[in-house]
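Loading example: each entry is read as two labelled lines plus one structure line.
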Amino acid sequence: MKDKRISLAHGDGGELAHKLIQDVFVEAFGHNEYARLDAAVFSAPSSQMAVTTDSFVIKPIFFPGGNIGKLAIAGTVNDLAVSGMIPYYLTAGFIIEEGFKVQELKEIVHSMAMEAKNANVRIVAGDTKVVERGSIDGIYINTTGIGFVHPIHAIQPELMEEGDSIIVNGTIGDHGIAILAARGELGIKTNLQSDCAALNGLITSVLDSVDGVRIMRDPTRGGLATTLVEIAEDFHVSMEIEDEKLPIRNEVRGACDILGFDPLYLANEGKVIFIVKKEQEEQVLEILKQHELGQNAKVIGRITGKDKRAVHLKTGLGSIRKLNRLSGMMLPRIC
Amino acid sequence: MQELLNEFSNSKLSRKLLDKVKESAESFIREHGRRPIFMEVCGSHTMALAETGVKKALKESVQLISGPGCPVCVTDQKSIDAMIKLAEGENRIICTFGDMMRVPGTECSLLEAKTDGKDIRIVYSPPDAVKIAEENPDKEVIFLGIGFETTIPVLAVALKNAVNRNVKNFSMWMTTKLVEPILRTLLESKEVNIDGFILPGHVSIVLGKNSYRYLVDEYQIPGVITGFEPVELLAGIYKLIGQLLDDRAEIENAYSFVVTDEGNKAAQSLIEEYFEPVDVAWRGIGVIPKSGMDLKRKFAGLNAKHRFAITVGEPRKTKCRCGEIIKGLISPEECPLFSKACTPLTPIGPCMVSAEGTCSAHYQYLRED
């Protein structure tokens, strides 16, 4: 029997569209309670809230360690979580190419439901459009997230000072190389999995007990280096990280050597950088290591001052070089 | 394998070696009143020396100058313009290495041509371009063949596949370059003083250690073939200083676990089967006799230069000093455009674009501002 496929009629708002929504989306997301009005109505646990939005166009749609759906949930949840927010509600918008397999859509939506459950967020509204074959490449997803400020500890980037510790929760570059390898254009095979994961559980466990988290960021596109440069420029601080302390898997190093990439600029989808008061460094490491997503957490460097707005890397040889934003590297679609 | 390479980037070992290099450089400086001057021929060495911090760590001890080893950087502007012009034709798919995409032509870059709707694809391996030709029988697929002896055998494999599978719509536009003619030109011009060469790791896998005999026999210049990790780079430099202190000039192989005396015979015979030496123009240097490779006459059908008539005018003049940079005459910071008008996002010359370019290495890894 031929695979069932998405047709233009699935997006016309009629009977087929209704059936698709019921069979695929409501079935997985279980958001019937929110789906009866044109907008989702929900209650707010506090008055300070945050909203973020992100669109996902990754190729390939399915990759080792996840798929576009899991990424769409984790990505938006992480943007809220690193801002010191507790993610509560998400919306999901789908743009699907005519001819996309219904089974694959179900798989994607199922991953979204699973990841949302793991992250303890509700998907409260959604939208589906179908476009003619060839207009897009399979499926694109937009998610918008709403979160509320962590009730105990807030982040305080303005307090960053010399000596503060820079911590990352695990190995960098896994997502970038896993995706590049999965695209099959590089002729390399790896067992690497994308690190794609919602980080709000990990982050909340830190904020629950640590007073002294200055700032958090997720080093996605542009990698660790670009993210640190952004922090340095946004908050007028200088910092130094040490090459030898960076957690990087051998497979990632090897692939970078072959392909001429720098792991510092590879995308991550399950990593968070914490900058914390030096006195809290041990406590944060301990909490991170107790969590599944923080086993390889490490201190990778320090804030060195408030004058220069620059990030420096200390190489294994002891020489220091300045890190810049990612510039001009030709990378394909990775998120 | 990666564990082995990790040993070569082992920081304890490299710091010890760094001290030894500095020590022996001191002896040289005491004797000659100046630092020893070494040229790294290969673009990947330029990058590795900058990225690992070796160049910075040796600033006071050794003068490292970058040579003509970045294949995109040494391509003259007219060839670049011709390749971009080629992409503008109808019903064509241009396949190229990623490095070429941003290289500025007189009119536009390949990336800009792609944005305008031309079908230009990055491939990581030339044989992939032959596959693309098979999948698109109604289009002309042209691979832009750029590179030194490391890449030329892989270009031959692509041609071999096209011949064996009778792929009629595939052709190659060659602007490859050879190492020996450019090193001879540099040494004979006497514009730069070089005490020794850090010889390319990858090219030497194909050519073998013995291919560099002319450096010693005719020019009495030492050379060391080495790898790309800090320990390997430092070991290579240490051996070079050692030769100078002993008043020796030899070709040494510090990359012997992949480079043999004779090189890769299979790769060499692939080159011979499909290509022959031709005169080519180098950026900022001019035409050097028999310094590049093009398809042999019997494969003219696969030669894009025969298949497509491309004419380009004189390139636009800019203040770009890439020509002097690839000869090792100046460092990027001496170019008035460097990191001001010319950056990786707004490159004026190819040295700023290529992943192996000297300006790109300096911009990414050695800039202080």
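The mean pLDDT of chain A is 92.
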